[in-house]
Specification:
By secondary structure, this protein is mostly beta strands. Helix content is 7%, strand content 53%. The chain contains 2 helices and 25 strands. The protein has helices at residues 6-22, 266-271, and strands at residues 40-42, 46-53, 57-66, 72-79, 84-88, 92-93, 98-106, 112-122, 129-139, 142-145, 149-155, 160-168, 175-181, 185-189, 212-218, 225-235, 242-252, 255-258, 262-264, 275-281, 289-294, 299-307, 311-318, 325-335, 342-351. A 5-stranded mixed sheet has the order 2-9-8-4-6, with no helix packed on it. A hairpin with a 6-residue loop joins β16 (225-235) and β17. The longest helix has 17 residues, at 6-22. It is flat and about 75 Å long. The chain starts with 5 loop residues before the first helix and ends with a strand.
Length: 353
Amino acid sequence: MKRIAPTLIITVVVLFALISTAVPQPQPSPQSSPEIAATISFKETSYHVGEIWEGDKATHTFSFTNTGNAVLHIKKVKTSCGCTAAVLSSKEIEPGQTGEIKATFNTRRYRGEQSKTIYVSSNDPQHSTVQLKLQVTVKSAAHFSPRNLQFGEITLGEKASRVIKLVPDSEAIRITEISVHPDLFQARVLEDEEPGLNQAGEKSEKELSRPVSIEVSLSPEAPIGRHNGTLTVKIDHPRVPSLTARIFVQVKGHVRFSPRMLFFNEDARKQQIVKKIGVEKQDGKELKILSVESSASWCKVELITIDPGRKFDILVSRKPDLEPGRYQGEIIIRTDSPGQEEIKIPVRANVKK
């Protein structure tokens, strides 16, 4: 067997050492810096208050902690309806510190299971908006069915009435007073019922243990327009002294017109579009249109008779050379119809560059 020369062994060892030092060795990666961010953490996001009487306030304080490593900024706290309020303890919460949001729900005119939402917006990148739920069971002595009274559309001078029922929720109650506001409305208990009021509206000793019907009437003198009212029934109950229902009605005149507003957009500038207002008398009596004019100098009107004394068209056109901008005015129609001696229809134009 041949022997390897010592000089050859030394040469191989030296070359290996040189190669090892020439090849770059992997370096340990530097540690990444921790993310700087605020974190909002609520102890609870939903709370049920339990049972309370109608008219009482349901309250609960939601507590939260900034579990991040940056200052927590509360940008906005808003509620799902005006019946609920939310008060924030502080808008800025340092890391590790806590804050509070006190929520209050006014249960007036509510009954049964209720759930209200509070929206909390912050600079937490993972939870920019958190929803909190305030829940409660509202007890009441009685309720209205329907909850509100809708008359709908009524023609000027028309006699109209609607019926609403007062329904006891559990035990018998006693009615002590019925009132309605404003005096455009009147209210009375129907004669075949057994309310706690006699026909003169005075207190009676009869108790109400079943639904009772209340008739609400609209005065024929009610003017044209939208009208709102309130029906209030006072009862002999230790926790719920009164109950209210809202009343809604719209009184329209005998002269009907459409549309109720005119708008000229950019196409009207290029094509000179003419808009039309249709006017018609509904009660069979003759209608006289005394005059039609525009309060705006940038548009003109023309009256056309379709059916004498009953049906008319009013053509409305705008000037072709208007400068860019927004324009507004009114078309004014004067008639001999009582309650509608002057009808005003808004007219708008938007002229772009």
